[in-house]
Amino acid sequence: MATLADVARRAGVSAATVSRIVNGSPKIVSEELRERVLRAVQELQYVPNAHAQLLARSHRTTVGVIVHDVSDPYFAEITRGLQRVAGEQGRLVIICNSYRDPERELEYVELLRAQQVEAIILAGSGYHDPAFTKALNAKLSAYMATGGRVSVVGRHKVAGDAVMPANEHGAYLIGREIFAAGHRHVGVVAAPKQLTTTTDRLAGLRRAAREYRRTLPARRIEYAEFDRDGGAAATAALLDAEPRLTAIAALNDSMAIGALAVLRERGLSVPGDVSVVGFDDMPIARDVTPALTTVRLPLVEIGARAIALALDPQHPNPRVEDAEATLVHRESLGPPRSS
Amino acid sequence: MATLADVARRAGVSAATVSRIVNGSPKIVSEELRERVLRAVQELQYVPNAHAQLLARSHRTTVGVIVHDVSDPYFAEITRGLQRVAGEQGRLVIICNSYRDPERELEYVELLRAQQVEAIILAGSGYHDPAFTKALNAKLSAYMATGGRVSVVGRHKVAGDAVMPANEHGAYLIGREIFAAGHRHVGVVAAPKQLTTTTDRLAGLRRAAREYRRTLPARRIEYAEFDRDGGAAATAALLDAEPRLTAIAALNDSMAIGALAVLRERGLSVPGDVSVVGFDDMPIARDVTPALTTVRLPLVEIGARAIALALDPQHPNPRVEDAEATLVHRESLGPPRSS
DNA sequence: AGGCGCGAGGAAAAGGCTTTCCTTGTAGCC
DNA sequence: GGCTACAAGGAAAGCCTTTTCCTCGCGCCT
């Protein structure tokens, strides 16, 4: 690869001059030299070595984000918002998929630190795991102690700024909707127990239940992987255990889609026989049949705010912002069948 | 941030020793020093500066991939395959979203070159744009000239190794299916004209049409954005212009889902009134109603092969591999309504 | 005892760039 | 003419690691 020095030699100038021209420094250089240098750059197809630049410059210009999986629509939206703001502020974004493996999450924090990122954004559910939380906080604190900025979305008890999606409240809204419609036998298709998102959303559902003098007995809560197939598996189990179920609350839309698939397979109509509700309002939610009644989280905005917090040098670190949830009425929720 | 020198000072050893211990070099160091150094590393929360390492080491260990958008299922799958192989071979992957903007694609090639990546993988449709193709090839050649490896998926006329999805053949398969079912008035919901993927898939459809002594007149081909909303718009236009349509071939599943939405809105049943077929077999294809008849491309494998080619140092660069397409029968294709 | 080899650790260069501080040359002034 | 002041370009010092090449000391052999 051609280096700065190669260009300088070819143009017959010093490395300093080339650097100034290539980076558009304010220092004035004569038209003639500029031209010679630019020509040499062209001829040698010179591209500055980003690592050397990073080493030589003092200011950082990359931020890292750790998500479960960017191709999951939930995180795709958050990332979109994040990228937009990053782009506006001239920052590059490094995306890391943790696949919900705490170990890997820890590794990625180190990796991002090694990459000298200006800020780390952690998105996605936390874990009920004190040892992990402690380890994570230790790593993040060390990073913050050296000027790194941290911002998390939807995590309790982690150092740094935070944007908190209204998981509890969103679930409460949708729970109210279900109970108000008259359902008494409600099953919950839940994500793994150790995710804080699960706990939060279940809490919202429970609050709604209490308000309607109903309960959500443990035997009607089935935990499974937080995706389409998990939703299908949990629904099948639920249906087998409780044939009288008239409504299923899935803890996200992917799981709801899995539920829909099982219901269809078993010849149960939705919402005629069984109602189904989701969570997150991912784009596909309106295109399945029946279209999903769900809760929308302003994901793009959440991502944008998370990075904005991290990049705002004014305020010292721990600030918490809330993100509202809104109900989206579609067709998958109706009154219970009158049996 | 703590540096190697800080650790060395604290442990009372030289920088060389610290480096050797931290990197597990084969050189032997006494237990005592090792312990002192490791303790200092802990205390200072030292993490090596990745950029300095890159500068100092000779071998590269990152690869870059340029896709339209990782959160698009098509590219998500390709990326998954790619990441798997990259992980196995100890490589890090930098993902760049071009959002189908040729300009941005060019910029990303430069950026990846600046990052000193070992290989660049370019995935996604090419463009019918000689100026762009020339510029891209110039950049890639410059990169390859300095030892960079390039591998593309689904691009004609680009330097480097290639994996070619069977776009033409897949479309041929599905076209045959449509015409064999007896459809005479077939509309095509197509992606933008300047994408080579569009041309290839249309060619396959046309070949099937010729075989059945049918034609695909231009007025029954509607071009739109390569996504759900584009599919909806094109379908609406097609239906307005040709109410007698009995089948719609969408050039990918997202567009097919948009078509399904419009059809449902207009009270047309699928496949009773109008049949719909997609392309790509993205995961959601089986969960919409009716489940999509489509063509499957082995996307994960395509990604894996693309990076495997790039990382294989044996062979010199231009090798071309083909990836087969297979038909997936589901419910969205039926015989034409007998009107 | 002298020489050799070897093992453990350190010194220093290299890697590519930015940026501060200098040098040099020229214009402008008295 | 001699001086200052300023503009343009260059020299060189970092930035942080890795790695090659040394050095030093010790044990062993003859």
UniProtKB/TrEMBL annotation, chains A, B:
GO terms for molecular function: DNA-binding transcription factor activity; transcription cis-regulatory region binding. Residues 2-57 form the HTH lacI-type domain. It comes from the Bacteria. PROSITE patterns: HTH_LACI_1 (PS00356), HTH_LACI_2 (PS50932). CDD domains: HTH_LacI, PBP1_LacI_sugar_binding-like. The keyword Cytoplasm does not apply. Keywords: DNA-binding, Transcription, Transcription regulation. SMART domains: HTH_LACI (SM00354). InterPro entries: HTH_LacI, LacI/GalR-like_sensor, Lambda_DNA-bd_dom_sf, Peripla_BP_I. This is LacI family transcriptional regulator. It comes from Actinophytocola xanthii.
